[in-house]
Amino acid sequence: MSQPDIEAWDAWHPRRMADHLRDLEFPWFVAAGWAVDLFRGEQTRDHGDLEIGVPAGHFAALPPLFPGLEFWVPVGEGVLTPMTAEALAGESHQTWAWDPAAARWRFDVFREPHDGEVWVCRRDERIRRPYREIIRRTDEGVPYLAIEATLLFKAKHKRDKDELDFTGALPLMSQAERGWLDATLGLVHPDHPWRARLRRGI
Predict the structure, then answer these.
(1) CA distance 142 to 128
(2) How many domains does the chain have?
(3) Which of 7, 30, 77, 125 is deepest in the core (most CB within 10 A)?
(4) Torsion angle defined by CA atoms of residues 81, 86, 89 and 92, in that order, rounded to the nearest 10 degrees
(5) What domain range includes position 11?
(6) DSSP category for residue 171
(7) Residue 111 parent element (H or E)
(8) Torsion region of 123: left, alpha or beta (phi above 0 gives left; psi -120 to 50 gives alpha)
(9) Among 107, 124, 145, residue at a domain's last position
(10) What is the pLDDT at residue 202?
(11) pLDDT tens string for the chain (202 positions)?
């Protein structure tokens, strides 16, 4: 099976994903850039993809819910392989969903570490929170990763879009959210420039 074009994205909207997974019996959430916009209550920029997170131990239940899609696992820069048990056991935590009828990628699944009902940060296993705390919901019921955790992941890359997401979200964050992000940045990126801004709230 030849690899689809990695640039051929036409991602679903988070609301469509939420409608499809509304009866799911385990936690899931929208992650990354879309999570920031769901927190902000509006779409503030284009999103080339849709990333969702699920507990790794429950991932096997997800692909059968999408019988029209094929699932691929990234195994290197720009290289993906069809999903197999061997591929899932590799280093990548991502699984891309390909729609062969449309010849487009629809979403990317993060297979996240967890300890039962507790979310475990894949960057540092000391960072843990119950799913009931780390997942928030929009007024429409779309679940997304809490803004402080979303920005913790974004802090690593220092891309323009991550800086814009942080700047846009910061004025809306509570003191508790800012404090949690500052503390966890202290564990994984202690010299990060966001920390000073978090303390000032600007």
Answers:
(1) 22
(2) 2
(3) 30
(4) -10
(5) 1-145
(6) G
(7) strand 104-112
(8) alpha
(9) 145
(10) 66
(11) 788 999 999 999 999 999 999 989 999 999 999 999 999 999 999 999 999 999 999 999 999 999 999 999 998 888 999 999 988 988 889 999 999 999 999 999 999 999 999 999 999 999 999 999 999 999 999 999 999 999 999 998 879 999 999 999 999 999 999 999 999 999 999 999 999 999 987 6
- How are strands ordered across the β-sheet holding 114-115? 114-115, 118-120, 128-130
The CATH number linked to 139 is 3.30.460
Write phi, then psi, for 30 (nearest 5 degrees): -75, 140
Tokens representing residue 146 in the block: 């809490």
Distance CA 145, CA 52 (A): 9
Are 131 and 181 within one domain? Answer: no
- For every residue of 23-88, DSSP letters joined together read T-SS--EE-HHHHHHHHHTS--S--S--EEEEEGGGGGGSGGG-TT-EEEEEEETTEEEE--HHHH
With contact defined as beta carbons under 8 Å apart, do 98 and 70 qualify? yes
Residue 173 Cα distances to 50, 178, 189, angstroms: 23, 6, 20
